[in-house]
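Collaborator request, handled under Task 6.
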Amino acid sequence: MSKSVCSRRSFLRAGACVAAVHILPERARGANERIRVGCIGIDGKGRSDVLWTAAAGAEIAALCDVADPRQIPARKKSKDNATLLEQFPSAKFFADYREMIETMDDLDAVTISTPDHHHFPASMLAMRKGRHVYCQKPMAHSIWEARRMAETAAASRVVTQMGNQAHAGEPIRRGVEIVRAGAIGRVTEVHAWSDRPIWPQGMAEWPKPAPIPEGLHWDLWIGPAPVRDYSPDIAPFKWRGWWDFGTGALGDMGCHILDMPVWALAKGPPRRVEAWSEGGSEISGPLRSIVTWQFPTGWFDAPFKVVWYDGVKGKEGKYEFTPPEELWKNDFPTPDHVFRRFDLVLVGEKGRMFFGRTRTDWVFKPDALKDEVGDPPQTIPRVPPLTEDGKFGSSDPSVVEWLNAIRGGPAPLSRFELAGPFTEIVLLGNLAVRLGKPLEWDAAGLRVPNAPEAAPLIRRAYRPGWPNE
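Structure tokens returned to the collaborator:
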């Protein structure tokens, strides 16, 4: 399979190098035909993805989950206490998404709202069958997976979107424009934080086996990962803390919180990443960590660094594991005023910008910068709202952007070709956490020259019967 050559400058713009093949959708839709979607994972976050997809005008043609809601009651129901199977009675139900993708020739698209370790196989099967894909963040469980998904998406004619929802909203897109316009001058560093993990992490051994609940297809839940005994300390919610299935606090929130600064500043991959962590193990993520990426150049044609802090809340729920106090303490009455309100602070030559991805009342320091910012031109397209009052109704702009693109509109701005390289950056942080040493990153070769032991974490083995290429 031949591959094109990517420049570092095009890394985030065009995604990873792609194979010169084209995958055509198996089914061509008529102009007035509704988009038929199969939804993989329909509890928890999956439930909202199903409802958002329907609210944006798609037809829910199939529902898929390893936990049969007819036997295991859904944890969240609508106001009228209706399950998704009751709300969409014409949708076919599957336990195995491989069967759904293979047998439903009339599907146009799929949503994927599963634990992280299923994102790659479900997405690859769907794209290779010509199905458009909306996949929750992080786009992949490993760096190699993110690269292959981006390659496959770029080589195909399917529409893809990673579900870091705020990427499609006004705050992040306007924030990128403001930073690039030089509001705080050349940005030298970014400090971002999260109160995650809010699930158990730091486990040193696997939990004791428990009886598999009726209606749960545990072997399908395990999927491509190593076989482990069922335990409620793994599923349905606590899987994020186990490296076999999840990507920890950074994987959960990094694709949200780091989105704006990486989009605004990065022109290519970092050259170096290092991490400090506390309480982790070979099988589980840490209780807290600090990750630092060093980028050789960026939007302002100069080096910059990005620093991530997770576990910023102590055992008593107080913010105590935070960025250096000199960055924020003199500007806010209490830690709650900054760490609840904002996700990150950008440090530039002219001052600082405290940014939150769900709001636009950001804070600039010194205060005079707020007036100097002015009104930079809008350079990033916005997602057209669903209603006349400029709202998205019961849907989400990231889903609307994806479905609009399937209908012939502009390509989504968190499509796999763009989201893949970003996901690689996020997951590279986990690689540094797990190896416990500074890493010199060779993005083109997908390797760490100073840590050959990273190879099985960059690309791990899969169980037979699941896509591995």
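The cover message to the collaborator said: "The domain at 11-20+29-165+391-418 is CATH 3.40.50.720 (Rossmann fold). The chain has 15 helices and 14 strands. Please let us know whether this matches your experimental observations."
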